[in-house]
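for the writeup, i need someone to sanity check this before i put it in the appendix. the sequnce is what the collaborator sent (i think, or maybe the updated version? ugh). structure was predicted straight from it, no edits. if anything looks off just tell me and ill rerun, i have time this weekend
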Amino acid sequence: MDETSIAHDTNASFQPRADLIEAAVRPDVLSSGDVEKSQGRANRHPGIAQLLTTRLELRQLRCFLAAVEHGSFRRAADALGHEPSAISRYIRDLEDTLGASLFHRHSHGVKLTVAGSHYLRPVREAFRKLNEGASTVGSIGRGETGEVRIGVASSLASGFLADLIALYQAAHTEVRVIVEETDAPSQIAAVRHLNLDVAFLCGLNNVADCEITPLWHERLFAALPRRHRLADKQTLTWADLSPYSLLKSSKSQDCDIHNHVLAQFANLGKQPNFCAQDVGRDNLLNLVAIGAGISITSEAATALCYPGVTYRVIGGEVLYFKAVWSRHNDNPAFRRLLSLAQRFALDSRRKRGQGG
């Protein structure tokens, strides 16, 4: 079947008028008679807006673009792997839906009408956006873009968690990492409701509806004024610390450390002399520096250097940190973070085993 026969088949039910096509693009050129005819068609088809949103098919638009690109239904059919008659039918259906002829048909091929020329730009733009969307969704599905929300309760000054986030960000530059510092119960609730992807907490064994995996551990340290009498000792005990005021930030979320200190003092038959301060970590250590008391902190926080502050390890005291996440979480970016965390933890254990 040649282009002429295709054109004849298509135009059997469609005889375009140049004046009406121009009017479809420029309503101001409609005559009064044409306005009446247009209103009559609208009355017979009250659901035309719905038709435009429900009857347009992607394959029709592909055929339209292919015909524009190749200037022929036959060549468009070859490019798309269809029969020429199918291309003709799809485009005819598209024209029927739109109510305007998109092509002039002739024996040598096809050429856009005025209406077709105006329709070309939004169709190309729509396909461009579809391709962009597909690319974005694919990147998210592969964990290359997106967002990961992390809950923490310990310092990011150094240590496993700081190194993990740095490694992940270096490998996934298009993923946003958002860190939230709250207490453990709030983090667990957020994980269950998928408001957090993962919480890195210590002292947990089982959490309902959540998965848990151990990752790393940190020693406990006492932050002391540099001239404090305990600064002469390299390793401290809880008995050493029991006579002194222990500064605690009311804004800090280190409740695991607080509970650990309570438990250890209970073993001594004593109560710790906590002194709550309404300051953050920074000013808490500044208070230590001026001699207001001692602060108990994790190993990661010892990377924070403050004039007048020194750190001494508390012998035999270790906090074990674990990742907690919802088993219903299917965020690909988070899954990549979790996989990296598990590999990083395994590598860290191997290095410690080798004395590295």
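The chain has a mean pLDDT of 82. The first strand starts at residue 103 and ends at 106.
thx in advance!!
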